[in-house]
Amino acid sequence: MRNNERIIYGILITILVFAITTFLGSKIHLNLEFFSSSFVTHSFMLGLSIVFIYSLRKYVNYKIAVPQFKKVLKPILFGFLATVFINITITVLTKILGGKVEAHALLTKMNPLQVFVFVFIYASIAEEILFRGFLMNILKPLQSKGIKIFKRNLSIPVIISAVIFGLAHLILISTGAGEFFLFRIVIFTTILGLIAGYYQEKFENNAYAIIVHMSGNLMGVIGALLMNLNS
Fold first, then answer.
1. How far apart are CA 112 and CA 223, in angstroms?
2. Closest CA to 203 of 81, 63, 73
3. Which of 73, 76, 94, 199 is most buried, with most CB under 10 Å away?
4. Is 80 exceeded by the pLDDT of residue 231?
5. 132 close to 209: Cβ distance less than 8 angstroms
6. Do 187 and 167 contact (CB within 8 A), yes or no?
7. Per-residue pLDDT at 31
8. Which of 110, 105, 91 lies closest to 228, judged by CA?
9. Nearest in space to 16 (alpha carbons), one of 176, 168, 132, 213
10. pTM for this entry
C-alpha cells in the first residue's frame, strides 16, 4: 500500500468508525441506571477498531504491552499539565471575550464514579485504540517525516492522528455546545493527541497513548468530584 493510500484509507476508515459508533450510540439505549450513554458508543468503537486492526494487520503494526513504571511518569505529567494549562488559558480567554464557560455535556449527567469508569478508563482506551492504535499505526511508514517542536520530533502520523482526533470532537456541536467550548475542546484534544502520539511512537506501545489520554481525562474526574461536593 502506497503512503498516500495509507493516508486516505486510514482517515476514511477512522471517520467511518467514529460516525457509525456515534450514530449507534445515539440510537441504542440500555436503560440501565449506572451505564452512561457513552458506553454504547465506546463499546462499538472499541469493537470496530479491533476488527479493522486485525483485518488490516498486514498494514497496521499494532503493539500494546504493560508499560514500564519509570517510563510512565513523564507521559502522565505532560498529559495532565497540558490539560490544565490549555483549559485554564482558554477559559480565561473565553471570559475576557465575554463568552460562556461551559462544562462537557456528558460530565454534567454523570456522578464521579461514572466519570471515572466511562470517561477516565473506558473512553480513554476505546478512543486511543482507534485514533492512535489504528490510525497512527497504519500511517507508520510516514513517521520519518515531520516537524520539531521544543526539540521533540512530531511525525506525520502523530500530527494527522492528533488533528483528526481533535476535529472529531466537533460532534459536540450536536449537544448545543457554544463556539468557545468547541474551540477549547478541539485545541485541548488536538494537543493531548500530539502528546499521546509522541509517546506511543517513542515506545512503540499503544499503552502509553492510553495513559496520556487518561491523564488528560483526570481533570474531568476532579471536576466531577468538585461538582458533587458542591451540590
1. 8
2. 63
3. 199
4. no
5. yes
6. no
7. 84
8. 110
9. 168
10. 0.94
Relative orientation angle of helices 179-203 and 69-96, to the nearest 10 degrees: 160
Q: For Cα atoms 72, 225, 228, give the angle at the middle one, nearest 5 degrees.
A: 170
Contact status, residue 63 vs residue 141, Cβ threshold 8 Å: no
Q: Please state at what angle helix 206-230 crosses helix 69-96, rounded to 10 degrees.
A: 50
Nearest one of 128, 117, 104 to 49, comparing CA atoms: 128
Cell 460516525, located at residue: 19
Distance in angstroms (rounded) separating the CA atoms of residues 2 and 138: 11
Q: For 29-87, write each residue's pLDDT tens digit.
A: 888 889 988 999 999 999 999 999 999 999 999 999 999 999 999 999 999 999 999 99
pLDDT in tens, 129-172: 999 999 999 999 999 999 998 888 999 999 999 999 999 999 99
For the chain, what are the domain ranges? 3-230
Q: Which three cell numbers stand for residue 204?
A: 512503540
Where helices occur in the chain by DSSP H, the ranges are 3-27, 38-55, 69-96, 112-114, 124-128, 137-138, 156-168, 179-203, 206-230
Residues 65 and 203: beta-carbon distance below 8 Å: no
d(CA 204, CA 143): 12
Query: What does the block give as the cell for 221?
Result: 474526574
| Residue 67, Ramachandran bin (φ over 0: left; ψ between -120 and 50: alpha; else beta) | beta
